[in-house]
Amino acid sequence: MAPDLSDQERALLSRCPLFLGVEDALLRSLPALPGVTVEPFAAGEVLYGPGQFRQSLGVILSGQVQVTNGSLSVSLLRAGELFGAATLYNDAPEFAAVLTAQSPCRVLFLPQETLDRLLGEEPLLRRNYLQYLTGRIRFLSGRLRSVAQTGAEGKLARYLLTVPSGEPLRLSATDLAKRLGISRASLYRAFQALEDARLIRREGKSMYVLDPAGLEGVL
Q: Is 3.40.50.410 the CATH classification of the domain at 7-147?
């Protein structure tokens, strides 16, 4: 028997870019559609990776998911956000990124065949999906430009903004410098600049974000 979605999860889906404006009856029917699953993931568990993925669109119902590509931290996905569009409509043997649960998560998976049918039957859903893909293209293009142009302070600020709210960053300077693609000397200067601006606080080997909005302004 397909698991039901809670009232809170249906409310979340109604605000999700893909399902914005669709009828509640469709949201209620999702778990019973062919191939659709709702699955839990423990913190630290990999959802998608180069050799571990499925041709499905994922919707995060609860929790947070970190997206990385090699040593680069790409983004932190939260409840209501989508992932996996790159697995659809192509035969690529590998997924380009690694998606790791940062906290216990619950995810709704829509397989390509079922998504195809929904897009064909629901014009609003089709428009929402195209708008979502357009937004992703703009976001990724902006990230590529930003990574190429931003200095050490901006790279550090961007990485810190992916750390779950309220949690400290615990990572050695050597590992962090490698992830950001900068030297340790540049990293220490960036630490000092952000600390002097009271955007972060360092306590031993832990670092805390004091002003997320201020970090956004560094980018």
A: no
